[in-house]
C-alpha cells in the first residue's frame, strides 16, 4: 500500500510540470483540437466477473489519453485508459498491467462492450435541435415528456465499466417538412438491451395558429431485452425470474403555451401501458421563469402497480426490482400520484441546481416487499458549478434516494430521516481544481446495492493536463 501511495503521489506531482500548448481556432467553424493527459489512481475490481466486494477491490495507477476535436456543432473524443501497478521485486521494478482494460475475456465482456467505450463521445448539436446525434455516455436519456424514459443514465457503473450508447433525433423542420419527427435512444450499442423510440406529428401545423401549430402528438415504445442483466443470482432465484423482454408503450401530447425570454411554459400529457394490463396517465406543465428558474409539476392517475418513468436515471441499478414487480398480476386499487420539480441555471449554466420529488397521494404502507419501489416517495437532486466562477474549483454532484419514509429494512419509517440516510441512495460527486494547465479531479461514488443489501463505493484521484 505504501508503494502504491508513493507511486501515485509521484505521478500526480509529475503531472503538474506539463505546460499547455493552446490550439485556438480563428473562428467558431474552424477545427479545435485539445489533448488531455491524465495521471492518477482508481479503485477497481480485481476480477470484474465476480461480485464487487471489499475483497475484490484494489487500487491501481491510471494513465489516460484523451484527444478531442471540435468542428462547429460536431465533436469527437477518445478515452484511452490503462491501469497498472508498479511493483518492486528482487529482480527489479516491474509494471503490472490491469488486463481487463484490453482483454474482453478477462473483463467478462464482448469485444464491442470493451472497445466501443474507448470512444468517449461523438456528438452533433444539442437535444431539441432539428438534428441531434450523440454516442457515448448519457445522464439524460429522455423520450418525449419522460413518463416512460426520463433522464436514463448508462454511467452508473463507472469507473469500472463504461457503457457506450446512442441517441438520434430528427425533426422534419430539417427538410422543410415540420409535420413529423422522431427520437431514438439505445442505452448500450454493444448489447442493445435498453432501446426506445418516439414518433411524433404536428397535426395542426397547417392552421398557422400561434400556439396550436406547434402541438405535438406522439407515440413512444421502449423496451429492455435483458432486464436481469445486472441482477444478483440470489435475487433471481428468490423470485424465480426468467429473463424476458419488457415492452412499454404510450401516447403523449405536448403544447408550448408561452415562449419568451422571461417566461416559458409547456403543457403535456401521457397515457402509458405496461405488461399485464398495467396503465398510468399524467398531466403536467413546466418551463422557465425569468430565463433562469426551472419548474415543473405533474398530476398522475395510476393503475395498480404501475411504475412511472420506468427507465429513470438509476434504472440500471434497480432494473431487476422493477422487472420482478411486473412479473405478477397487478393488485390493489387505482391511485393518484404527483411530481414537483424546481431548480435554476445561472450565468450561462455555470451554476445549475435541480431537484424533483415524486410519490403517491395515498398513505405510505406500514409493511413492504422488496419490489415495492413505487409505494414511497423518490428524490433526485443534481448540482453543478462550472469552472471560472470560484477560482479554479468546479464540481458535479448527484443525490438520488428511493423508499423515503419506508419501514425497516428499506428505511427508517421517517421521511425526513430517510432524506439523509444513504441506504437505497445513489451518490456521486466529481470535484475539480485547475491550476494553469493541470486539473486535479476527485471522483467519488456511493450506491446502495439492493440485490446484495450492501454498499458499493468507488473513487479515483487524477491529474489531467490539457495541451
User: The biggest beta sheet, please?
Assistant: 20 strands, antiparallel, barrel
Whole-angstrom Rg: 23 Å
Unreliably modeled segments:
1-28
What is the end-to-end distance? 32 Å
Q: In which range does the helix fraction lie?
A: 10-25%
Give the structural class: mainly beta
Oligomeric state of shown chains? single chain
Number of strands: 22
Count of alpha/pi helices: 6
Strand content: over 45%
- Principal-axes shape call: globular
Order of helices and strands: HEEEEEHHEEEEEEHEEEEHEEEEHEEE
Average residue pLDDT: 84
Keywords:
20-stranded antiparallel beta barrel, disordered N terminus, 22 strands, single chain, mainly beta, 6 helices
Account of the protein in words:
By secondary structure, the chain is mainly beta. 10% of the residues lie in helices and 46% in strands. The protein is built from six helices and 22 strands. The chain has a 20-stranded antiparallel beta barrel. A hairpin with a 3-residue loop joins strand 13 (263-274) and strand 14 (278-289). The longest helix has 14 residues, at 2-15. Residues 1-28 have low confidence and may be disordered.
Summarize the structure.
The chain has about 475 residues and is mainly beta.
Topology diagram in text:
Elements: H1 2-15, E1 32-45, E2 57-71, E3 74-78, E4 80-87, E5 94-97, H2 104-107, H3 111-115, E6 119-124, E7 131-136, E8 165-171, E9 180-186, E10 194-201, E11 216-224, H4 233-239, E12 246-259, E13 263-274, E14 278-289, E15 293-302, H5 315-327, E16 335-346, E17 351-360, E18 378-390, E19 393-401, H6 415-419, E20 425-435, E21 438-449, E22 454-466
Antiparallel strand pairs: 1-2, 1-22, 2-3, 2-4, 3-6, 4-5, 6-7, 7-8, 8-9, 9-10, 10-11, 11-12, 12-13, 13-14, 14-15, 15-16, 16-17, 17-18, 18-19, 19-20, 20-21, 21-22
Amino acid at each position: 500500500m505504501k508503494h502504491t501511495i508513493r507511486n501515485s503521489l509521484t505521478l500526480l506531482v509529475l503531472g503538474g510540470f506539463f505546460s499547455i500548448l493552446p490550439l485556438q481556432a480563428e473562428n467558431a467553424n474552424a477545427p479545435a483540437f485539445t489533448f488531455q493527459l491524465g495521471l492518477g489512481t482508481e479503485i477497481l475490481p480485481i476480477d470484474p466477473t465476480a461480485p464487487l466486494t471489499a475483497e475484490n477491490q484494489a487500487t491501481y495507477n491510471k494513465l489516460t489519453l484523451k484527444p478531442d476535436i471540435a468542428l462547429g456543432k460536431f465533436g469527437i473524443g477518445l478515452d484511452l485508459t490503462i491501469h497498472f501497478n508498479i511493483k518492486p521485486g528482487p529482480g527489479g521494478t516491474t509494471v503490472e498491467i490491469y488486463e481487463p482494460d484490453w482483454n474482453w475475456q478477462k473483463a467478462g465482456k464482448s469485444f464491442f462492450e470493451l472497445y466501443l467505450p474507448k470512444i468517449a463521445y461523438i456528438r452533433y448539436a444539442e437535444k431539441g435541435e432539428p438534428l441531434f446525434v450523440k454516442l457515448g455516455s448519457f445522464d439524460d436519456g429522455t423520450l418525449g415528456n419522460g413518463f416512460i424514459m426520463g433522464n436514463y443514465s448508462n454511467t452508473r457503473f463507472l469507473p469500472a465499466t463504461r457503457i457506450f450508447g446512442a441517441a438520434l433525433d430528427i425533426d422534419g423542420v430539417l427538410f422543410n417538412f415540420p409535420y413529423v419527427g422522431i427520437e431514438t435512444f439505445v442505452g448500450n450499442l454493444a448489447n442493445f438491451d435498453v432501446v426506445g423510440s418516439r414518433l411524433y406529428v404536428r397535426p395542426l401545423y397547417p392552421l398557422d395558429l400561434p400556439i396550436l401549430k406547434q402541438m405535438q402528438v406522439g407515440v413512444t415504445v421502449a423496451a429492455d431485452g435483458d432486464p436481469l442483466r445486472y441482477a444478483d443470482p440470489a435475487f433471481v432465484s428468490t423470485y424465480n425470474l426468467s429473463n424476458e423482454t419488457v415492452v412499454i408503450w404510450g401516447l403523449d401530447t405536448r403544447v408550448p403555451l408561452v415562449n419568451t425570454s422571461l417566461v416559458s411554459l409547456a403543457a403535456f400529457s401521457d397515457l402509458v401501458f405496461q405488461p399485464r394490463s398495467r396503465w398510468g396517465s399524467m398531466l403536467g406543465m413546466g418551463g422557465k421563469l425569468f430565463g433562469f428558474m426551472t419548474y415543473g409539476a405533474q398530476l398522475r392517475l395510476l393503475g395498480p402497480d404501475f411504475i412511472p418513468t420506468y427507465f429513470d436515471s438509476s434504472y440500471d441499478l434497480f432494473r431487476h426490482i422493477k422487472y420482478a414487480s411486473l412479473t405478477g398480476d397487478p393488485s390493489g386499487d387505482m391511485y393518484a400520484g404527483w411530481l414537483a420539480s424546481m431548480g435554476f441555471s445561472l450565468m450561462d449554466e455555470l451554476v445549475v441546481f435541480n431537484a424533483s420529488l415524486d410519490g403517491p397521494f395515498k398513505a405510505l404502507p406500514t409493511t413492504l416487499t422488496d419490489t415495492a419501489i413505487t409505494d414511497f416517495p423518490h428524490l433526485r437532486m443534481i448540482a453543478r458549478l462550472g469552472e471560472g466562477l470560484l477560482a479554479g474549483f468546479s464540481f458535479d454532484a448527484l443525490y438520488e434516494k428511493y423508499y423515503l419514509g419506508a419501514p425497516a429494512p428499506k428505511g427508517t419509517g421517517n421521511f425526513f430521516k430517510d432524506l439523509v440516510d444513504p441506504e437505497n441512495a445513489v451518490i456521486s460527486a466529481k470535484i475539480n481544481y485547475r491550476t494553469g494547465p493541470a486539473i486535479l479531479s476527485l471522483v467519488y461514488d456511493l450506491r446502495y446495492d439492493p440485490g446484495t443489501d450492501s454498499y458499493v463505493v468507488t473513487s479515483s484521484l487524477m491529474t489531467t493536463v490539457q495541451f
